[in-house]
## 1
Amino acid sequence: MRASFLIGLLLAACANNASAAGHLVIEGAWIRNAPPGAMMLAGYASVRNDGDAAVIVTAADSADFASVSLHESIEEGGVVRMRALDRVEIKPGASVAFAPGGKHLMLMRPKHELKPGDSVKIHLSTNSGGAAAEFIVRDAP
Ligand SMILES: [Cu+2]
């Protein structure tokens, strides 16, 4: 009885608003269109913490890619490199931009071809649950 009540609550929470689960609001989510056969794509979005406690993004995943990781582009002596991030902390009321030239979601080995206008669901895991959003494939603005 109690278990089914809890499951009902969880389902209601999930159905309510997938992109605002936990305290995170994911906005303007997009994936940079890449040539056919590309094995590596990048996803971008603005991630806002609407809650009153810090949220730590620890991982990301998508059914449409073999793997998704948190990355950051950094310039060192005129050379741009990428490094993997273990965690991205978002303070209460703050936003973190995943944007070209900075933090991004590294999307490895798409499981099917993607073209502009396609939508891909990406899930972020956090210390307080997670959040997901539909990322739209498009050319760079
Ligand atoms: Cu990267």
Note: Residues 71, 82, 104, 106 surround copper (II) ion (CB under 6 Å).
## 2
Amino acid sequence: MATPTAIKASGLVKRYGDLVAVDSISFDVEKGESFGFLGPNGAGKTTTIRMLTGLSKPTAGKAELLGLDVGSNATRTKGFTGVVPEVSNLYDELTALENLLFMGKLYGVASTERHRRAEALLELFRLQEKRDRPFRTLSRGMKRALTIAAALIHNPKILFLDEPTVGLDVMAARSLRKVIKELHDQGMTIFLTTHYLEEADILCDHIAIIVKGRIVAIERPEKLKEMAIKEQAVEFTVSGDASTLVEPLAALTGFKPIIVNSSTLRCSGTTNRLLPHICRAVQDAGAEIVSVNTIRPTLEEAFVRITGLSPTVMATEKGGK
Ligand SMILES: Nc1ncnc2c1ncn2[C@@H]1O[C@H](COP(=O)(O)OP(=O)(O)O)[C@@H](O)[C@H]1O
Ligand SMILES: [Mg+2]
């Protein structure tokens, strides 16, 4: 038999009364893959994680982890998954080390092994110095790091992270991404949700874009970037009247340029492809190029185009613990 897919969602639906929070989503995550669920607040990301990890029963559809139906094998699937919720599940009064050991006990990790793992995780997350500090006294970044460490105490095969860097400062977010990347490099299967495009780009092999409970695209980040590159344009200004260049440029490039103003035109396409044509047309018209600008849409703009969402939707922050 072929090795089972790490995570398989088949027609997952979650309704809350009239609200369809997750609207029949299906996808596969292969072993060792890092898969990102990218979408704005309220898109259904947390609800999906909860169904995939057995914390919430789907209204319809099926979630499987390593070939096991989560609904009917909850104990077994919990044994090989780590879950990092949006809000930490650790205890304020326990120290960093005690929290790790307690979590290890909950997961049934034997005492010696649990101590060994806890030490290794404190080191991996650079928290050795904070080992004896109560959780509540740690900085926001350290709390998040320890919450991830705790989810790894039983050495899971699949790690679920719900918005791992939300509410963290740039440095803390960067160091957590580094650790997540290291875990991925070591072969762990990672499923993370985020509303940061950059984060999905850095960390994920595949990105599923989720909007209002539906997946609107599943692509590799490179593909998303390619889609953005296709939207490149070159804008140039000439001495004198640019409108005489519209027809010759349309003939050369196959696309009619847009008239920005009397001396400026915009052509769709990459600089490499367009520049020779522009130079030739301008020269033939006896004019001179005054300036050239490449308009390169960002990955964010590609995202906006795919989802039809305004960029401010994604920029909307929410506080995290
Ligand atoms: N327990 C619940 N009861 C009712 N509605 C819920 C519940 N949990 C989530 N929702 C709603 O489901 C939608 C998706 O929520 P959620 O999965 O938390 O989104 P995200 O994690 O992408 O921000 C939202 O409209 C949210 O208000
Ligand atoms: Mg959420």
Note: The longest strand covers residues 19-29.
